[in-house]
Write a structure and sequence with these properties.
About 45% of the residues lie in helices and about 15% in strands. The chain is of the alpha+beta class. It has a single domain, classed as Nucleotidyltransferase, domain 5 (2-Layer Sandwich), CATH 3.30.420.100.
């Protein structure tokens, strides 16, 4: 990465609970973080889903990308650290969010998750299956969603509402 001459990186990290997307500039005395977005910020936009799932990774990347565009940043090199580059994984969802915000981030289209996965259709389908087969297991598996007031079967619709709120905030003069 250093030899590439590209000084700005999209650093994407997962923890057990969150997704973190940073724009980091290489500096000889130590990297400088220009932008840092933690998926916990999603609640500011009404997010009631899990802060560590694929839709949250995309939305976190989208916010970081919108902030980067505001700063005039056009291109980033992906830095996924020690995460395995598995097709459709959360780090690639974050990259897709950065790209959808207007930042060029090199990655093969085939490794990016499909739009259905970004919206959480896979979570919705699993929730519907559990709901019809075992309501107790459904209530246990999705207890955090339910506590936050979100029926996981409505996740794709909720994702779109939060995505629109983010876009409105950054493109409609809401700040950032």
């Amino acid at each position: 990465m250093v030899r590439s001459g590209q000084k700005l990186r999209a650093v994407i990290r997962k923890t057990n609970k969150y997704i973190i997307v940073q724009v980091v500039e290489f500096a000889p005395k130590g990297d400088v973080t220009l932008i840092g977005v933690h998926s916990s910020i999603l609640s500011k936009f009404g997010w009631k889903g899990d802060p560590n799932n694929t839709p949250a990774a995309y939305l976190t990347g989208l916010i970081a990308g919108l902030k980067a565009v505001r700063m005039g940043i056009k291109r980033l090199i992906p830095d996924i650290g020690l995460h395995r580059p598995v097709k459709g994984c959360r780090v690639f969802a974050a990259i897709k969010g950065l790209r959808d915000a207007g930042v060029e981030v090199p990655a093969s289209e085939e490794v990016l998750p499909p739009d259905e996965r970004i919206r959480g259709e896979h979570i919705r389908a699993y929730a519907e299956k559990l709901y019809s087969e075992n309501i107790e297991k459904y209530n246990g598996q999705f207890s955090d969603y339910l506590k936050r007031g979100l029926d996981p079967r409505d996740l794709p619709k909720h994702f779109e509402e939060v995505r629109e709120a983010i876009l409105k905030f950054f493109t409609g003069g809401g700040g950032g």
